Amino acid sequence: MNIMNKDTSHINSLENEAIYIMREVAAQFDKPVLLFSGGKDSITLVRLAVKAFYPAKMPFPLMHIDTGHNFPETIEFRDKLVKELGLELIIRKVQDSIDEGKVKEESGKYSSRNALQTTTLLDAIEEFKFDACIGGARRDEEKARAKERIFSVRDDFGQWDEKNQRPELFDMLNGDIEHGQNVRVFPISNWTELDVWSYIEKEDIEIPSIYFAHKRKVFLRDGLIWSHSEFVYQEEDEEVLERMVRFRTVGDMSCTAAVFSEAADIASVVSEIRDSTISERGARIDDKRSEAAMEKRKQQGYF
Amino acid sequence: MGGLKIKMEVLKIATAGSVDDGKSTLIGRILYDTKSLTTDKLEAIEKTSKQKGYDYLDFSLATDGLVAEREQGITIDVAHIYFSTAKKSYIIADTPGHVEYTRNMVTGASTSQASVILIDARKGVIEQTNRHFFINNLLRIKDIVVAINKMDLVDYSEDIYNKIKTDFESLMSKRDYKDQKITFIPVSALKGDNVVNRSERMSWYTGQSLLEHLETLDKKDIYNVGTPRFPVQYVIRPKTEEFHDFRGYAGKVYGGELSVGDNILVLPSQTKSKIKEIYFYDQKYQTASRRSSVTITLENDINVSRGDMIVKEGDVPKIDKQFTANICWMDATQLTTSGKYIVQHGVNKVLAKVDKIHHKINPDYSGIETNVTGLNVNDIAQVTFKLNKPIFYDQFKNHRTNGSFILIDTQSNNTVGAGFIQ
Predict the structure, then answer these.
(1) How far away is chain A from the Cα of B40, in angstroms, using its nearest Cα?
(2) B115 near B146, Cβ under 8 Å?
(3) Could you tell me if A190 lies within 8 Å of chain B, comparing CB atoms?
(4) Cross-strand partners of B297
(5) Which of A75, A132, B89, B271 lies most in the core, judged by the most C-beta atoms within 10 Å?
(6) Which residues from B are below 8 Å from A9, CB to CB?
(7) A9, B7: Cβ pair inside 8 Å?
(8) Distance (Å, rounded) from C-alpha B339 to C-alpha B352?
(9) The CATH homologous superfamily of the domain defined by B229-312
């Protein structure tokens, strides 16, 4: 987010820290899972897990909470990655939670399935009895996440008690929990957006094509660039334009806005991020709802 | 096969200051002057500052992330703030100034390599300053900056700066850990003097700005190097055709380096062996530097499991079922004599019983209290523990990682204390 020609070799120490955390998860928990969205942060997690346990396979499956409103490029990418690395993938669908009457589809101009994912996620955790869920959240993303622990305990209802968190000292991670509780684990807590991109460049990690500049049908609303899609509510007077854009963060189509960009390869993306004066989540429609949007969702059990 | 080195590091800094010393403003100033605040974050700060009727930018809004914090205008929990320059990446652990500050400061300082203590130039050294310095000393932070803030409110007076410096120096004679480098810098966080850029309003001060000081810190200035310790985190057994007999020990190297061919001992069994290979992912290396997360294989097929420790032969830590430590108690429920807890020492967990509380240590250098039967939240005390199994430890003064531990409550599973072995 900042200043010229930064030396990125410090990523070395962040990588070593993340590998240490991955191994603590495997050692301290009976049934861990890696929450995989198909976005760059969870792809980075997969890379770190592969490295942590080499030459053995990573000792936990991936789980995708599928809103059904994905970018098709993300799903294609997900399936290819799982096949190439021989990983186990669990998919649980928000559509099923809607069909079972557990959650109600939002309607109107800003409708999104983003918040509905929480119910599907908590049900899946209960179904598989997962005791640790590895996620790609980073403290630099958002101010409620800046308060998050690396091992973050969730109660029986999946909820985050932000005012009563365990202190984390040295690099000792306390994963002791009661039956029914689970721990959310954030191995890349201390990475910044630029660190993730620099790592993707350094390690030559493949990512979905939507992260690179491409022509897309979009429309403009509230200063953000929305995808024109059957999943995104669009007013009649919101004109469809075709523009060169890319995505800086990838959630489902209804909550992720694009940025105008000509950056077509990883080197140009890294330099674009380095010079950017807008934060990553500035393009997250879900965070724009209120200043405490993320904190509220996290309390309810969100990623 | 070369050495596996961790190159440039991330510098973690703890901050300490009393309420209204301007800690959040200082952090905001650093972010602002290094151009680390993005336009949307800056706009949010401007908007909220205006709503609150301030005629200045309230930078604390950049760091106070919880609703309750913004409502009450206080920092409740440690926040982590990230910024970088062309030279280094920084993480600031922003710890609350008042509520449970001992607990939070110990937590923030435990992962930091440098520390900034703020003093309000109008108030000078106060009781809280003693406490801040005490904790930084207890945790053996090697580099401390004493930032004398609000110089704009005392007419940038050299006399006032010198008086505070002299007062602080008299505090330094009381400390245990003498190898600490202490640097005094007069600053105004609000006006930006000597924070990132040098001040033109204090020509009498010829030293570096705060950021310049941090930029020039070298590894040898901030790390305590000891002997190599390798606690085994996880045993890797692929059982694939290609790696049928592979048995690798995954862990992080602490203190010093380990190399292929080193004669080692596995604790607690004290079995001898030699390091055969060092892996980082699919690459083999000759040497693993401290803080690298590697996988080691040994020459002999011996039984090693999580919690065991690989050390160099002739360089063995103490192996004992009891130890005495200074601890910081962090829980609302009292620690009592004969109370039972889990000691987590690195990745090793053992059951422990409080054998004796020797005395409480007042964290303001005012002495000790004896005849103590229980410890309350934020108390610091010297305690002896008895363990159900031996651990392999060094004294904290010789080994920051292998000499520290946390205490876990067996009922609530919460982390309730931290300790430094004597």
Answers:
(1) 6
(2) no
(3) yes
(4) B277
(5) B89
(6) 7-8
(7) yes
(8) 8
(9) Translation factors (2.40.30.10)
B278, B284 Cβ separation under 8 angstroms: yes
The torsion angles phi and psi of A163, rounded to 5 degrees, stand at -90, -5
> Are the C-beta atoms of B191 and B185 separated by less than 8 Å?
no
What is the helix (H) or strand (E) element at residue B311, kind and residue range?
strand B309-312
- pLDDT for A25-78, tens place per residue? 999 999 999 999 999 999 999 999 999 999 999 999 999 999 998 889 999 999
Q: For residues A56 and A72, what is the distance between their CA atoms, to the nearest angstrom?
A: 31
Domains, chain A, ordered by start: 11-196+291-300 (3.40.50.620), 210-287 (no CATH)
Question: Residue B106 and residue A52: Cβ atoms within 8 Å?
Answer: no
Q: Is the pLDDT of residue B69 over 70?
A: no
Cβ-based neighbour number of residue B69 at 10 Å = 22
- At residue A4, the pLDDT reads 32
Q: How many other CB atoms are found less than 10 A from the CB of residue B61?
A: 24
Name the residue facing B76 among A146, A163, A189 (closest C-beta). Answer: A163
Rounded to the nearest angstrom, the gap between the alpha carbon of residue A193 and the centroid of all alpha carbons in its chain is: 12
Q: Out of 3.40.50.970, 3.40.50.300, 3.40.50.10490, 3.40.50.1450, which CATH number does the structure's domain B3-222 have?
A: 3.40.50.300
- Do residue A190 and residue B10 have CB atoms under 8 angstroms apart? yes
Q: Which among A48, A67, A68 has a CA at the least distance from the CA of A58?
A: A48
φ, ψ dihedrals at A64, nearest 5°:
-110, 120
Handedness of CA A130, A132, A138, A141 (dihedral sign): positive
Q: Tens digit of pLDDT for each residue in B322-350?
A: 999 999 999 999 999 989 999 999 999 99
pLDDT of the residue at A277:
75
Q: Which of B104, B234, B243 sits opposite A55 (nearest CB)?
A: B243
CATH architecture of B318-421: Beta Barrel (2.40)
Pairing of strands B181-186, B143-149: parallel
* Whole-prediction pTM: 0.92
Ordered by start, the domain boundaries in chain B are 3-222, 229-312, 318-421
Q: d(Cα B283, Cα B277) in Å, to the nearest integer?
A: 10
Q: In this structure, are residues B296 and B381 in contact, taking their beta carbons and an 8 Å threshold? A: no
Same fold, B3-222 and B229-312: no
In this predicted model, which residue has the larger pLDDT, A216 or B68?
A: A216
Amino acid present at B351? L
Q: Is the ipTM of this complex over 0.90?
A: yes
What SS3 class is residue B368?
Answer: strand
CA distance A64 to A53: 21
Q: Do B110 and A169 touch (CB under 8 A)?
A: yes
Regarding beta strands B335-336 and A132-134, do their DSSP bridges make them parallel or antiparallel, or are they unpaired?
Answer: unpaired
pLDDT in tens, B93-130: 887 766 567 888 888 899 999 999 999 999 999 988 99
B347/A7 Cβ within 8 A: no
> Are the beta carbons of A6 and B86 separated by less than 8 Å?
yes
